[in-house]
């Protein structure tokens, strides 16, 4: 049986959206898939050495808030200074309490499982990042690099 | 419950950690050896079935013991 392949494009740089690519990639690797993640635009935040990911209630009516606040709290209130920090801290605590892995841990598990991670060179340049801002082992490439692997993949996800 | 060679306590861990830890522990076992896994994540019941099916490691037993989920997996 040929080894199955999973290709993921990670485009989002918030704490909540950091989970799907790393959960799916690490699990796929555990199931024997050859896995590659292509990080572009805000997704580049997920491969920085120092992670500083946040979750925002702003413009996110689906986000459950404590004390039923999502039912009565005014939408504009979610734009108040400090809301992002508060919600991020609460989310991280909730995740820890429920035994959900941290992004650092999942990312490390992906690296251990030899998930190949590629940063989009164009957006690295666009945002004036340095290659030293990113984790070791990260490769840099463009759209054609992505298709080289994605074209042969069994599953291809855009996250 | 049948005999096993090694035990993995994945209590308190949530998806996908029980599967990832199991995979890692299985890597250290010999073919034919049995790993016993204890988990509290209700999703792990279906997940270990799927894991066994896709990796070829055999799920010998899947059950509940004292409010926890217990699995026996034989390494392929």
UniProtKB/TrEMBL annotation, chain B:
Source taxon at top rank: Bacteria
Similarity remark: Belongs to the sulfur carrier protein TusA family.
CDD domains per the UniProt record, alphabetical: SirA_YedF_YeeD
Q: Indicate the secretion signal residues.
A: none
**Name of the featured protein:** tRNA 2-thiouridine synthesizing protein A
**PROSITE patterns xrefs:** UPF0033
Which Gene3D superfamilies does the entry link to?
Answer: TusA-like domain (3.30.110.40)
InterPro entries, per database record: TusA-like, TusA-like_sf
Output the Pfam families linked to this UniProt entry. TusA (PF01206)
Q: Which organism is it from?
A: Thioalbus denitrificans
Q: Where is the UPF0033 domain?
A: 8-32
């Amino acid at each position: 049986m040929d080894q199955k392949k999973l290709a993921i494009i990670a485009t989002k740089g918030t704490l909540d959206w950091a989970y799907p690519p790393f959960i799916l990639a690490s699990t796929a690797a555990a199931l024997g898939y050859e896995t590659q993640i292509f990080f572009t635009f805000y997704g580049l935040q997920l491969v920085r050495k120092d992670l500083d990911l946040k979750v925002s209630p702003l413009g996110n009516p689906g986000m459950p808030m404590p004390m039923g606040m999502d039912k009565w709290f005014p939408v504009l209130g979610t734009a108040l200074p400090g809301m992002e920090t508060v919600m991020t801290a609460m989310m991280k605590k909730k995740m820890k309490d429920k035994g959900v892995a941290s992004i650092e841990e999942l990312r490390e598990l992906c690296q251990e499982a030899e998930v190949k991670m590629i940063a989009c060179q164009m957006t690295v340049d666009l945002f004036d990042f340095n290659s030293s801002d990113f984790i070791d082992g990260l490769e840099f490439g463009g759209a054609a690099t992505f298709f080289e692997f994605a074209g042969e993949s069994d599953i291809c996800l855009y996250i | 419950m049948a005999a096993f060679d090694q035990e993995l306590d994945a209590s308190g861990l949530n998806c996908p950690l029980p599967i990832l830890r199991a995979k890692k522990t299985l890597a250290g076992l010999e073919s034919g050896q049995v790993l016993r896994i204890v988990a509290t994540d209700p999703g792990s019941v279906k997940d270990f079935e799927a894991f066994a099916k896709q990796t070829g490691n055999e799920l010998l037993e899947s059950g509940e013991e004292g409010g926890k989920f217990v699995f026996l997996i034989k390494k392929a």
